[in-house]
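Example (one chain per record):
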Amino acid sequence: MTGVTRITKLDFFIMKSQAISYFSLVAVILLFGLIGSSITVLCITGAWFIALMATNIFAIQEKNHLDRLYGSVCVNLNEVVLGRYTFVFLNYLATMFTIIILYLGFVLCRKATFDASDIMLGLGLSFLVFSTITGIQMPLFFKMGYTKAKLWSFIPFAVVMLLVVLPAFVSALSGVLDFAQSHKGIFAFTCIVASCIIQFTSYHTAAIFYRKQR
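Predicted structure:
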């Protein structure tokens, strides 16, 4: 795990130049919170944003030829991939922690009540959104590089955009959301399990792709 830790720390150091993007996310969450958005909306917004932003490390890696640097810190290819996944996941965790703190601040300011199950639902759904986006994108970036994979990585978003205008899909989605509201704990747990499976599969796919590229 030493190699994984090295890569994770290195990625955080490299992404320090992108710190302003993280502050912009806080501004977006504050705006959404001020207009009364639910914790679920806040978490999903944060997950969407951080999943897109965290992959900027691939652009920096390609631009600055960081593969040579990874080779100089005595790590194998699997550790490079796992370190990258760890870096992106820690970005997600830090974002969710910040969102929950801000949300609780809004609740206290409004002297409102909150249900812990709402937070669980928000975290479950956000983790699924995050895992789906990064689970598709990261193997592509490891296989093709940032520039070549950038266009392909947006295809899932285009598919979602098309689906949300289809009445049959909207109807099915409404049914899922109704179930989620009625069984928050079960639905959140299911989302987390599904997300872990996606991340596990994505990591192994990315590792295979990266080994072939090297």
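Caption: The chain has a mean pLDDT of 82.
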